[in-house]
Amino acid sequence: MAKSPKISASHEPGGLIVHISGLLPSLSPAEQRVARLVVADPADAARRTITDLATTAETSEATVIRFCRSVGMNGYPQLRIRLAAEAARRIEPPDARVVGGDIPPGADLAQIIATIAFNDARAVEETAEQLDPAVCEQVVEAIVGAGRIEVYGAGASGFVASDFQQKLHRIGRTAFYFPDVHTALTSAALLGKGDVALGISHTGTTADVIEVLEQARSRGAATAALTNFPRSPITDVADFVLTTAARETTYRSGAMASRLAQLTVVDCLFVGVAARNRTRARKALEVTAEAVQTHRVGSTRRRG
Amino acid sequence: MAKSPKISASHEPGGLIVHISGLLPSLSPAEQRVARLVVADPADAARRTITDLATTAETSEATVIRFCRSVGMNGYPQLRIRLAAEAARRIEPPDARVVGGDIPPGADLAQIIATIAFNDARAVEETAEQLDPAVCEQVVEAIVGAGRIEVYGAGASGFVASDFQQKLHRIGRTAFYFPDVHTALTSAALLGKGDVALGISHTGTTADVIEVLEQARSRGAATAALTNFPRSPITDVADFVLTTAARETTYRSGAMASRLAQLTVVDCLFVGVAARNRTRARKALEVTAEAVQTHRVGSTRRRG
DNA sequence: GCCACGGATGAAACTTACTTTCATGAAGCG
DNA sequence: CGCTTCATGAAAGTAAGTTTCATCCGTGGC
User: Fold this and answer.
1) CATH of domain B16-89
2) B126-130 average pLDDT score
3) Are A249 and A219 spatial neighbours (Cβ–Cβ below 8 Å)?
4) Has this prediction a pTM greater than 0.85?
């Protein structure tokens, strides 16, 4: 793995559990069994001995140790301590809404709303917690100094990419987003040193996005990735890795939580860039806001 | 250990630290040294090994164990865990993030991230709280029974509209979104009884969206509006009004908070609809997921 | 002053928990 | 089909935690 210098935002300060669930897919099967136990009930895991935990996960102590190392701990005792701390900090999730949990079959809409909102808010908060300001700073730096910025994303992540592009454009940065892979590829080929390419992929396995990012990188552009999984393939082609912290998700609410997390990160970058030149950015936003003013109906009824 | 307890080491109610300092005077000198270390810095103590702690307290491991028993623990590991948990709990969440607050001019990126995430999460939570499940239910009902669904939105709200359209489409509902007003208008003119039109506008004053919604309504379609302002013009042309709760916002972080709130509402509607026919919805999602599978690169597993 | 007595204490023996090493077998690669 | 790589657990090895026990020290009785 001759990997070029990469800065990754995986310094899990806020949430160890979050960090672990992000790493989950990159773990071996046996380690995953351990991880799932840990994520499911951190406090309980902290109480167990390594042998006990290994037995419950139907594996050996060795694997548990390997798991500890995989998530960045020195050994099992350290994991225990961290888990205990984590569990204590964790606010009691309201009633039956398990974090990242599924929605019970018989749920009424009120429950559904509560659960979704809880998970969504959580994803946003936890993403912010684990985001490394230093890496963000570098990405912001790159964008501020960039000649051209291109943002890539497919499917749902495409919305986020498009959103970011629009935002940057509004404050006068030259940014592009291409819904079409071929167009994106050709454009990426025209990038060079001093340009920036940002690839967005929740799973980190979207071939199209990886390919385009790779292309951009080979041309000398600085590349950044935004993904939920810190060891997914996309991180191989990124100089900077930013991660979201949406938990391993159910088929329904999960997708949205991850989207919100992505948007939050993108917004942080945007504000970071805008903050570099407040007056100019503010002015640009005012001008663009005025531009659509005639498309608003005058309302005397807006509440204050 | 056939010894009567020095002091009833019952369940320490307030906190372990408090408990320990409470019975500190009743401890033997050597144990007191240990106790003082523990009380002074629980988190640090939790990190140490028993030998290490004993050395620092200028005593033997045996004494540390005795101390553990004296304060009601079974042994040193249990003490460590409890201490770690205790220490974690007393950390107070960061400084002065005001709800809806602006970002101070000199803010560094860490502050920016914290502020944005806080506001975003709050917007999501508060939106969920004020959302009327009954109204949602009716909208869901309408969508479930609809022949055709059209979603309208301009600018930033357009992304949300598009997202909702895509989601509905994925579970087999016939839904449309038109980025172009003229197209939207003509399509709306073709709606009829049993169809549903949803207009999304943060301010509730977007003329294009209102116009289209009005058109749809005049043709007999059920109309719903999603806006942050319950008395804005768009509500005049809507049978059902759903509101977000993003606070009156600054030019920067605000826009995103409102977007996230909109997405949360849209996701609630989506899940509500999907829940009406779980198996069919799940199947549809699986099929569509498979469709893009070949565009994913293999395993995310990588060495660390 | 001398001698029990009992609690406090640490050295060392002991047990358990944790960590490393290594052989095995399965899965991918050319 | 052999080669490599990787995941895995058994077993050996090390460190951490626990118990035992002899010693020490102060106390009070003789």
Assistant:
1) 1.10.10.10
2) 86
3) no
4) no
